[in-house]
């Protein structure tokens, strides 16, 4: 099955923009990018494909039921890739309500709009319709030193972010089981790569390291994450949408576990090599151990073997080459970096998309 009209929610975000690019480059689908343009959105990331005749953008909030009904009625998708979310764990600790609103309520509103639209379709179109919800490995909680998450690992979220994503996963399954909406879920590990908002570990360390300011490592830096290059995730999402079994859960991971201190030290070495600075000196000197994140999950690791066996998906990028490419991307895109650093990317979006 290969969908022809794909509605991507959150397509102006980090992973969503990679998904939009992937669809335009490696499929023949028409793409509607539906995004509320929160602080995390950046349409500069899509400027080079904005005029593609197969691409359109619509500014809308997934919590707005009327706007969602209208988007389905106008675009008539045969596939929804749902990525819109509040995505940063630290923000969920200081302002959890926005996470409940978008991730839980917004997902329910979107599911209702999808269901109402889907129920009006002829039977053959109902059967081929897909609603893929993009979720996170954080719903499974924390691992100790051993083991890995599988599709049957029980849910045990720790943060308001992961609890809200867990809630959205349950809603998606419920709309599948109760109403027959053809849903699928992916749970993925930590993504990194170009165009990631610099609140997350890797881009934050790159930008701080370039500026010569402190690199804050939570606790002892011994927490472990399983890193996946963002384009590998985009490919996985599309493979699951096209070939996955309705009702199933697919785990997606990089098979690249690293503790945070190792990640930060690797970035320091790359910055010293690719952007040496006599004024700043060796970047490792900028590392500061700071107060730990409350409820900080110790370790995440994904067993993606079931996804590989059923769909043939495997990550293509190694952590070392992916990280080097990522650092180089930020070095080569100072305009993007400055727009984010100064906040001017928001003015650009308001000016260019104010009427939508
Ligand atoms: P992001 O924060 O970079 O982008 C989120 C996008 O959603 C933004 O463009 C934002 O404007 C949009 N959005 C937020 N609220 C909205 C609303 N109410 N209505 C419409 N649009 C809204 O996030 P990301 O890192 O690209 O993550 C995308 C998805 O993938 C999320 O669902 C996240 O939970 C999931 N995920 C992320 C990772 C990761 O490592 N970043 C890993 C696994 C899963
Ligand atoms: O596992 C998937 C999840 O990965 C996604 O669902 C989330 O959307 C995404 O944000 C990410 O969550 P994390 O909390 O793991 O990512 P973050 O980049 O915020 O932090 C990665 C690790 O680095 C984590 O152990 C906390 C630590 N950290 C983070 C920041 C921002 C630091 O030590 N210092 C920092 O300044």
Provide tags for this entry:
356 residues, alpha/beta, Rossmann fold, seven-stranded parallel sheet, two-stranded parallel ribbon, 13 helices, 15% strand, globular, binds nicotinamide-adenine-dinucleotide, binds 2'deoxy-thymidine-5'-diphospho-alpha-D-glucose
Structure description:
A seven-stranded parallel sheet has the order 3-2-1-4-5-6-11, with helices on both faces. Strands 7-10 form a two-stranded parallel sheet. It contains 13 helices and 13 strands. It has helices at residues 14-26, 65-75, 89-94, 96-119, 123-128, 160-179, 201-211, 230-243, 260-274, 305-311, 319-332, 334-342, 344-353, and strands at residues 5-9, 30-35, 55-59, 79-82, 130-136, 183-188, 191-192, 215-218, 224-226, 228-229, 249-252, 257-259, 287-290. The chain is of the alpha/beta class and 356 residues long. The longest helix is centred in the first third of the chain and has 24 residues, at 96-119. The protein starts with a strand and ends with a helix. The structure holds nicotinamide-adenine-dinucleotide and 2'deoxy-thymidine-5'-diphospho-alpha-D-glucose (DAU).
- The second-level CATH architecture of the domain at 5-191 and 229-253 and 301-317 and 344-353 is 3-Layer(aba) Sandwich
The arrangement of helices and strands along the chain is: EHEEHEHHHEHEEHEEEHEEHEHHHH
Strand content: 15-25%
Q: Which class of the domain at 5-191 and 229-253 and 301-317 and 344-353 in CATH terms? A: Alpha Beta
Rg measurement, Å: 20 Å
Strand order of the largest sheet: 3-2-1-4-5-6-11
Number of strands: 13
Shape: globular
> At the third CATH level, what is the topology name of the domain at 5-191 and 229-253 and 301-317 and 344-353?
Rossmann fold
- The end-to-end span amounts to 32 Å
Low-confidence stretches: none
Query: Can you count the helices?
Result: 13
Could you tell me which ligands this complex binds, including any ions or cofactors?
Answer: nicotinamide-adenine-dinucleotide, 2'deoxy-thymidine-5'-diphospho-alpha-D-glucose
Overall pLDDT confidence = 96
Q: Which structural class matches the secondary elements?
A: alpha/beta
Under CATH, the homologous superfamily of the domain at 5-191 and 229-253 and 301-317 and 344-353 reads NAD(P)-binding Rossmann-like Domain
* Percentage of residues in helical conformation: 40-55%
The biggest beta sheet reads: 7 strands, parallel
């Amino acid at each position: 099955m290969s969908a022809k009209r794909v509605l991507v929610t959150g397509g102006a975000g980090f992973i969503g923009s990679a998904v939009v690019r992937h669809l335009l480059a490696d499929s023949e689908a028409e793409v509607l990018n539906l995004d509320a343009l929160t602080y995390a959105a950046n349409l500069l990331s899509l400027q080079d494909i904005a005029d593609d005749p197969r691409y359109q953008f619509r500014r809308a909030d997934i919590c707005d039921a009327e706007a969602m009904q209208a988007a389905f009625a106008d675009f008539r998708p045969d596939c929804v890739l749902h990525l819109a979310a509040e995505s940063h764990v630290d923000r969920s600790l200081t302002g959890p309500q926005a996470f409940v609103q978008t991730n839980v309520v917004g997902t329910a509103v979107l599911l209702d709009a999808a269901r109402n639209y889907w129920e009006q379709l002829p039977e053959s179109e109902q059967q081929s319709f897909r609603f893929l919800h993009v979720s996170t490995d954080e719903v499974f909680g924390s691992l100790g030193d051993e083991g890995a998450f599988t599709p049957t690992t029980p849910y045990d979220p720790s943060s308001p972010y992961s609890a809200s994503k867990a809630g959205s996963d349950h809603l998606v399954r419920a709309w599948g089981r109760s109403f027959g909406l053809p849903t699928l879920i992916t749970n993925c590990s930590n993504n990194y790569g170009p165009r990631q908002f610099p609140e997350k570990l890797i881009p934050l360390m790159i930008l701080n390291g370039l500026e010569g300011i402190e690199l804050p490592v939570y606790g002892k830096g011994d927490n472990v994450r399983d890193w996946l290059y963002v384009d590998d995730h985009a490919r996985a999402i599309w493979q699951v949408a096209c070939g996955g079994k309705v009702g199933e859960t697919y785990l997606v991971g990089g098979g690249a576990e690293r503790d945070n201190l190792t990640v930060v030290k690797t970035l320091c070495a790359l910055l010293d090599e690719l952007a040496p600075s006599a004024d700043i000196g060796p970047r490792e000197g900028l590392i500061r151990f700071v107060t730990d994140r409350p409820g900080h999950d110790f370790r995440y690791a994904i067993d993606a073997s079931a996804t590989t066996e059923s769909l043939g998906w495997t990550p293509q990028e190694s952590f070392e080459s992916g990280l080097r490419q990522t650092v180089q991307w930020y070095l080569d895109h100072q305009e993007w970096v400055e727009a984010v650093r100064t906040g001017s990317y928001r003015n650009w979006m308001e000016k260019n998309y104010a009427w939508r």
